[in-house]
Amino acid sequence: MRPPIDHGTVLIIGAAGGIGRELARLLSPRVRTLVLVAREVQELMPLRDELLLRNPTLGVMLEACHLDDPHAVDALFEHLERHYVRVDVLINNADHTISGLYAEARWKRIEELVHANVVAPAMLTHRLLGPMLERGRGGILMVGSAAARLFLPGAVMFAATQRFLDGFSESLRLELEDTGIPVTFVAPGPLALEPPLPDEVTPFFQLSLHQCAREALAGFERGEALVYPGLGHRWMMRLLRLLPRSFKRGLGRLALGGLRRKLLLHPSSPEAGAPPRPVLLAGGEPSSAS
Ligand SMILES: NC(=O)c1ccc[n+]([C@@H]2O[C@H](COP(=O)([O-])OP(=O)(O)OC[C@H]3O[C@@H](n4cnc5c(N)ncnc54)[C@H](OP(=O)(O)O)[C@@H]3O)[C@@H](O)[C@H]2O)c1
């Protein structure tokens, strides 16, 4: 069950940077058309120029789509339909992240995150699956995060939405098992920033964006259900599965300790519209905010 990449049309959501851009580079010599999506078309233009320079016969469409807007996916599809674009493979790679304590986040931002990370991927998949099933070919690559397997205070909604993507992909994969449409979930760990931050501390098992994209694509083409890119990360995640849930809580508490120290050192005022403090800053007891 190989996804129809060669000479096909691949839609990449979140192609302006990171893994999405690397996937576009890897796919460009093989596909007929790439439909690249980001929030702003201008962000995609340098990539289009680079790809066309190396592959003059490649078809490249650039589309702007704010996934946190509930109507954006409909507008994107209307546009694709008007141009008779038939998508063979969906790569869902965009993610929306907010960091900080959950109680301090504005509800509007939480809603936007849920739209971008949950509603949009589900909707995109739903819109594309019908035609893929009619043709008896297609493929869906969901790029998520190893956060799907962790407890992440400071990124509560992000971790929760990654669990959604994991469960969604695995369950859908079973529904589609005999249809010729593979579904793969990719769960990377820490990736190298490009360009790197000057004072960046390199985490264990950090992988380059290129290597991550290469392994994600290779796993997808082998029809794997789950890809952990990078040997070290893969073994780490396998080991984590064998450890009790309490171990993961311990890791989460460590992360929370780091976040509290950061907040105490660099206190930022809560966002406009956020619920009033007190906030759980130092230890288990609520502390009144100054
Ligand atoms: N980087 C890491 O260390 C890491 C680690 C583990 C997992 N991952 C996962 O890998 C995937 C890609 O991450 P990345 O770091 O490569 O991403 P990135 O460099 O931040 O790029 C994300 C892409 O998504 C687009 N995007 C973000 N929010 C959007 C929205 N609301 N509507 C439309 N487009 C939106 C961005 O468009 P704009 O350019 O317009 O903002 C950009 O093209 C994500 O699912 C992430 O969770 C990343």
Describe this entry's structure for a reader.
There is one protein chain. The protein is α/β, with parallel strands linked by helices. 43% of the residues lie in helices and 11% in strands. The chain has 8 helices and 7 strands. It has helices spanning 18-27, 45-54, 72-82, 107-135, 156-175, 209-221, 231-242, 245-265; strands at 9-13, 33-38, 59-64, 89-92, 139-143, 183-186, 226-227. It has a 7-stranded parallel sheet, with helices on both faces. The longest helix has 29 residues, at 107-135. Residues 282-290 have low confidence and may be disordered. The structure holds NADP nicotinamide-adenine-dinucleotide phosphate. Keywords: Oxidoreductase.
Structural class: alpha/beta
CATH class membership: Alpha Beta
Could you tell me the CATH topology label.
Rossmann fold
Task: Give the CATH superfamily.
Answer: NAD(P)-binding Rossmann-like Domain
Question: Taking all residues together, what is the mean pLDDT?
Answer: 91
Bound molecules: NADP nicotinamide-adenine-dinucleotide phosphate
Task: Give the neighbour order of strands across the main sheet.
Answer: 3-2-1-4-5-6-7
Question: Compute the gyration radius: what is it?
Answer: 20 Å
How many β strands by DSSP?
7
Approximate shape? globular
Low-confidence parts lasting 5 or more residues at pLDDT below 50? 282-290
Largest sheet: 7 strands, parallel
Strand portion, in percent? 5-15%
How many domains? The number is: 1
What distance lies between the first and last C-alpha atoms, to the nearest angstrom? Answer: 58 Å
Helix content: 40-55%
Order of helices and strands: EHEHEHEHEHEHEHH
Question: Can you tell me the CATH architecture?
Answer: 3-Layer(aba) Sandwich
- Number of helical stretches of at least 4 residues: 8
